Amino acid sequence: MTSTTRTTCPYCGVGCGVLASVDASEAVSISGDPQHPANRGRLCSKGSALADTIATDSGRLLQPQLNGETVTWDVALDTLAQRWLAIREESGADALAFYASGQMLTEDYYVANKLMKGFVGTANIDTNSRLCMSSAVAAQQYAFGVDGVACNYSDLESCDLLVLIGSNLAWCHPVLYQRIKAARERRPEMKIVVIDPRRTATCEIADLHLPLRPDTDIPLLQGLLRYLHEQSATDSDFIAAHTSGFSADELASAPDLQTLGNITAVNDADLQCFFDWFAATEKTVTAYSMGINQASEGTLKAGAIINLHLATGRIGKDGCGPFSITGQPNAMGGREVGGLASTLAAHMTFTAQNRDRLNRFWGSTAVPAAPGLKALDLFEAIERGEVRSVWIMATNPLASLPEAARWKRALEACEFVVVSDCVNDSDTLAVADLRLPALGWGEKSGTVTNTERCISRQRAFLSSPGNAKADWWMVSEVGKRMGYADAFRFESPADIFREHAVLSGFENGGQRDFDISDWRLDSDEDYESMEPQQWPILENGTSSLYREKKFYTVDGKARFRPMAASQSLQLANAAPESLVLNTGRVRDHWHTLTRTGRSARLSEHQHEPTLSVHPARAVKLGLPSGGFARVSSEHAKLTLRVTLDENLPPDSVFVPMHWTHSHSAAGPINALVGTERDALSGEPAFKHATVTVAPATSAWQGLMITRTPLPCPDSDYWVKVRGDDYWLYYLAGFKAPLSIQTIWSSLTDMEYTTALLDSKHEQVRFLRIDANERVSCLLAVSTAENFEPPLWAASLFRHEITSASDRLAFLSGVPLQGSTTISPTICSCNGVDQATINALIATGVNTTAGITAQCSAGGNCGSCLPEIQQMINEAPSSRRVAL
Ligand SMILES: Nc1nc2c(c(=O)[nH]1)N[C@H]1C(S)=C(S)[C@@H](COP(=O)(O)OP(=O)(O)OC[C@H]3O[C@@H](n4cnc5c(=O)[nH]c(N)nc54)[C@H](O)[C@@H]3O)O[C@H]1N2
Ligand SMILES: Nc1nc2c(c(=O)[nH]1)N[C@H]1C(S)=C(S)[C@@H](COP(=O)(O)OP(=O)(O)OC[C@H]3O[C@@H](n4cnc5c(=O)[nH]c(N)nc54)[C@H](O)[C@@H]3O)O[C@H]1N2
Ligand code: SF4
Ligand SMILES: [Mo]
């Protein structure tokens, strides 16, 4: 018997509906929910591979642990409650803090915010969303009086001009990207402009790509506003009737087109083309993401985008608007419950009236008067010992915060660190005093809100493993044990959601945009069967904000953000001397690898956290492709493998954010990034660290393949990669070993069975056979510079019993019969690699449809189609460097 559950993908903010089926043998299969309005059955590579990342035993945290010892839930929760009561008694409520996450469900988030702001009595609850979209929040609150996202996904399809700025939608919101691509095929007149220093996979659907110099968005956007004003392409009626703060004087000092070319390094013709399209196209959407938010002037950047839409009246109508694309699955739900230190619940801000209102609603007296500490301020307060205890939930700050190593020391010194997580090996769990095992996706129930304000159910379809519990339950239990039994008497997520919904309407009277109090969810059955639903619901059943041109400011008008304070408007015209380190995402990995790092097929797309460098810059710096580079910032030095990438500007390098200390000697990458942040939102400037790069020559390199994972290898450079039945370790050392034979013993305390010295290739190959005659570990080490890792040998691990010829093949370095050298997987759904696709391109196949027809790549979720297109475009001269 197979049972199928309708649920929602736990990854990105698109919020796709998922059908999860469990058969009699408890095997899980995943497909897209054809009825969900976000995706209509589509899924991307990460969503399609969700079943691979479900783990119930190995790697899971299954019992509460106090100082490394397993304890009962009673001991764990009593200890937490007692410690918090004692610290509050001694040092006041602000000595306590909660660090939450846009990956918590709305119900988890609601109780965490209620506990901290309502009953512990501190606003020190902030979230990893601070690192993600807090600049967009600050910009929207200023402009609209509330943090209300102005668009729906359908606007991305119905607009005539789509500007994607600071967003790599093809990899980060792939299903939205596919929807846009399909819309463009239906309406070829629709134009798409991508504004990103890198030429990303998203550019495959772009009519125009503006590869602007990093952080020159504000001059570009203000220059555009000046141009629109000069061309009389602004909407003066709209400005007069519905906005305040428009300043023509301010625009006079914005750069003109000629100056802009120098500032942004974009050629004049492309700038002119963009400006003309923008001026001429009424139905314009500007969608933005981390290239805008994660900047020292992120709030101003987002404000400059909103200004353009206010000046042209392109908001609150079909196919128009500034669209903040959120990252995490429930960043929007977190905003609704007030999970940021700078907001109260239900889209309320810190006013005396709102505080009083919340105290009365919750039956408390403790709601604080002023905002609490924003993420980085919070960790600084922990460092100073002012915050004495922190509870971290569903986020891995020791990998995701800038200057990551510094917060490791701060948390080690902190009196009482509590971490709730599903896995047992995150960088942050390593420093926790109290570890609380949380239920994960598929095991827990609740709701999430996606980027277009659509609330969907996540439903459990698996039983709870070990002693893991839901996050809302842990928080409620601590609330009860701190003496607030009445306020935390929740029996289920449905109970919590109902309270949250009632609060949204409490004394609202149209003052706050978020009001779902009339949703009919009286019984648990109503909640159980809840369909995905956007808010607000208009009379005609559709959803839209600002349709009535009503904003939530004091005078009901939207506000222009003054730009005079912007430093980047005063930028010198010359290219920066130093290199800019840009960080971001790759297609198949999610954040700090605690989930996608468990899937062999998702790990195949990119094995190592490579440093991408423009070929011209690499020549200047003396960096060979495939060799190593030492990347240094004020904060750290990391060694990374080099990849050449013509799609980068020569003055910047790119490193993916994902690899942590649990996965690589080079992790966390954030050790390099400094804590420079936006003064208004507190969001870190993750995209623009200053680094220097120098070549690093390895003395030896190796590849180890093991059946069971090893502890972190004792080697200068290592990266651990999940394979089907094995783990791969890329290894290198920068000091000459005594002999290459000594390397085996420095990496493992196991004995090898046989080894062979291949002097011709300056290589030693070691092999270990276990008691069942299976290969359990093999290692190839070489002192030669041109070491080719024998990835083909991984196929030995598929065999139950290894034959003598298999062993000989490996030892003699001759690929096994039928095995091929692994090249990076392009299509992770159908397992098609780069070499196969390049071979087809070489035979003359020059369309993505042709490639799909020949080898099925791109035939399932389609996430790889932009990359295949890129390979076709780049053939034959510049292929990506093979492993
Ligand atoms: N595969 C995958 N998808 C994800 C995630 C993931 O981990 N993996 N995470 C999710 C989350 S939480 C988020 S926040 C989103 C992020 O989604 P995105 O914001 O789309 O992704 P990023 O790669 O962080 O950065 C976007 C782009 O900003 C560009 N950029 C850098 N500096 C500048 C600049 O100065 N100006 C402009 N205009 N652009 C610049 C970068 O080159 C990069 O291509 O992705 C979500 N989706
Ligand atoms: N350099 C650089 N750094 C960045 C960024 C960047 O672009 N560049 N982007 C930033 C952005 S936008 C974001 S959103 C952050 C993301 O950074 P994080 O949120 O720190 O990264 P995740 O790996 O998603 O961490 C989530 C943790 O929660 C655990 N978890 C999963 N499900 C549950 C659950 O149901 N309950 C509990 N209790 N735990 C659970 C996971 O195992 C994991 O340890 O990174 C930020 N850091
Ligand atoms: S686009 Fe992909 S990661 Fe995002 S919600 Fe949909 S399936 Fe999940
Ligand atoms: Mo994010």
TrEMBL record:
Q: Tell me where on the tree of life, at the top rank, the source sits.
A: Bacteria
- Organism field: Parahalioglobus pacificus
What the entry lists under SUPFAM superfamilies is as follows: ADC-like, Formate dehydrogenase/DMSO reductase, domains 1-3
Gene Ontology BP term (one):
cellular respiration
GO CC, sorted alphabetically, is: membrane; oxidoreductase complex
What keywords does the record list, in alphabetical order?
A: 4Fe-4S, Iron, Iron-sulfur, Metal-binding, Molybdenum, Nitrate assimilation, Oxidoreductase
User: Its encoding gene is what?
Assistant: nasA
Residue ranges of every copy of the 4Fe-4S Mo/W bis-MGD-type domain listed in the record: 2-58
Task: State the family it belongs to.
Answer: Belongs to the prokaryotic molybdopterin-containing oxidoreductase family. NasA/NapA/NarB subfamily.
Mention one GO molecular function: oxidoreductase activity
Q: Which InterPro entries match?
A: Asp_de-COase-like_dom_sf, BFD-like_2Fe2S-bd_dom, BFD-like_2Fe2S-bd_dom_sf, CT_Nitrate-R-NapA-like, MoPterin_dinucl-bd_dom, Mopterin_OxRdtase, Mopterin_OxRdtase_4Fe-4S_dom, Prok_molybdopt-oxidoreductase
Per its UniProt record, the required cofactor names are: [4Fe-4S] cluster; Mo-bis(molybdopterin guanine dinucleotide)
Q: Which CDD domains match?
A: MopB_CT_Nitrate-R-NapA-like, MopB_Nitrate-R-NapA-like
What is the protein name given in its UniProt record?
A: Nitrate reductase
